[in-house]
Design brief:
By secondary structure, this protein is of the alpha+beta class. It contains six helices and 15 strands. A hairpin with a 4-residue loop joins β3 (about 45-55) and β4. The radius of gyration is 20 Å and the shape is globular.
């Protein structure tokens, strides 16, 4: 990931390049400095419509921290310094419509990066659902579809449905797999049997269990399961994997979101990656398969 400029997580109308370009041209501002890098996810947040935008003549999108199991799909961009000022103006930071917030987003390979996003200010946020226009939601809808990102979170937000859990699948590659020690725990909260799946990265042999190292190199073979109830399932698995939250520095594993390959094509799923410490050495499983080590 290139380091020049500011990394920006976009989740609303800026998913539509023509909308961004049109707004800039109307203001005689430069638009070329917004560079798309990758689809991504913002874990622990939900999409909300509780801000009335005069420019959109209806509700405009916001992301709100809501906790375990929630996640908002979007796009990671890079902005130069000039474009950052333009984005501040578009998001209305001076009139306190939106404000900057630093967040951590997860890329398709499961790695995290720090990025800037914009959230509705307390001053502008209303304690009610504000219906967005069809034209506005269609910008987001088409932007998600273009990047092959799920539209469930957007639909939940439009219908003001709470709680919303847009990701209901989990990718496992170790002791939760079929025939392994903890498989029965996963089956208690899954719908149907697991299906073969793979993800990018490498897998370490930690002795009694494996550990996934997220990245673009290598392939990890595992299984994907449909989760019945997302929150209690992830609560149980977080405990098993020693994940204490995104603000903790003491988790054994971190729950992330990865793009996986299945027989039906690419999908998105939760998974757990190992928090390898500096200087720690373990053998890599060359086959990428815990059951063929």
């Amino acid at each position: 990931m290139e380091s020049d400029g500011t990394l920006y997580f976009g989740y609303g109308s800026n998913l539509d390049w023509d909308d961004w370009k049109s707004w800039c041209e109307k203001k005689n501002l430069r638009f070329e400095g917004l560079v798309e890098l990758s689809p991504c996810w913002l874990p622990n947040y939900s999409l909300k419509f509780h801000y009335f935008s005069n420019g959109r003549d209806g509700g405009a999108a916001d992301v709100v921290e809501t906790g375990r199991g929630h996640a908002v799909p979007g796009v990671l961009f890079r902005m130069d310094d000039v474009t950052l000022k333009v984005m501040d103006r578009k998001e209305g930071t001076k009139v306190e419509a939106y404000e900057r917030r630093n967040v951590r987003v997860t890329l398709p390979n499961g790695t995290f990066v720090e990025a800037l996003t914009y959230c509705v200010t307390k001053k502008s946020r209303e304690d009610r659902f504000i219906q967005p226009t069809n034209a506005y939601t269609n910008l987001i809808l088409q932007g998600l579809k273009k990047r092959k990102l799920p539209i469930g979170e957007l639909k939940n937000a439009i219908e003001n449905f709470s709680p919303s859990y847009p990701l209901e699948k989990i990718f496992v590659y170790g002791t939760l797999m079929h025939g392994e020690l903890r498989h029965s725990t996963l089956m208690e909260s899954s719908i149907g049997e697991g299906q073969p799946a793979s993800a990018r990265g490498t897998i370490l042999d930690l002795g009694d269990y494996p550990g996934m190292i997220a990245g673009d190199e290598g392939v990890i073979h595992g299984e994907v399961y449909q989760i019945d109830q997302v929150y209690p399932t992830l609560q149980t698995l977080d405990s098993i994997e020693g994940f204490y939250g995104y603000n903790s520095n003491h988790s054994l594993f971190t729950r992330t979101i990865v793009q996986i390959d299945t027989e039906q094509g690419p999908e998105w799923a939760w998974t757990y990656v190992y928090n390898k410490e500096a200087g720690e050495e373990y053998q890599t499983i060359g086959s990428g398969n815990w059951q063929d080590r």
